[in-house]
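# nightly structure sweep
# worker-07 picked up a monomer target from the shared queue
# config: single-sequence mode, recycle default, output format = structure tokens
# input follows
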Amino acid sequence: MIDKLGSPYIYAATSENFKALVLENSQRGPVLVNFWSRKAGPCLRQYPVLDQLIHHYDGRVLLINVDTESEFVFTKEYAIASVPTLKLFRQGRVVETWHGYQPEAELKKILEGYVTRDSDLKLADAVDLFAGGNARAAYEMIAELIVVDPVNPRLPLTMCKLLRHEGRYAEAIKLIATLPPEIRQHKEIQQFDALLGFYAELNDIENIAGLEEKLQTSAANLELKRQFVAHLVAQQQYEAALQRLVEMMETEQAYADNYAQQAMLKIFMILGSEHPLVSHFRPNLKRYVH
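# output follows
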């Protein structure tokens, strides 16, 4: 049975151990959470598929089962309206969600983009080179890894992050634009691409430190607000950035080809659909999109 497990890769979660099993473990690798109920036939059909899939990956993905009949807190926190619902966690947050019974091939297609590959081990060496001051050798190593393993989305993603660290935002954006569609559509790359757009805007700001002071005397200046939004996003102050965008939409809905609406969608992408700020601010977006 699902609640009586004997695998080192499969665990049953409760409110007491969920943080350790899911959130903490997802910092090291992907964790697939199965929200299930013994009363639902699709859940019982889904589990053998999950069991086979998890053992196929031999520890590179953990499966955590949450019994929604006994762990009611999770049905509300993660908006579980039906079972089975599968949620994939990475870096402490949900990156993928499936509703209803899923065939193994469909799950495997998505999981392949998150499980550790041989090229990831060598990628760590490239990051060490960069940290040691040898950026050129790091980029060359990552480029070679991409040729050998072109389906690993973490290779170009890491290169883009290193480029961002050096302030080379335009190059990182260009790199993502040249990736094959199946890699470019990977959620983490889409999120980083959205983030890079805000960083790129910072290059055009001469005095970031004086932006807030200028806004106090020029509250209706939408260009200043646009610059300040980019600054807030770069500082991960997403709620403040979203509030500024609402103010921009209230002042001039169609400013700069609907910049505020587009920027809000990008922040939603960065945060992920499960983030509470998305559900909080989405009504504002709907109000100004016709």
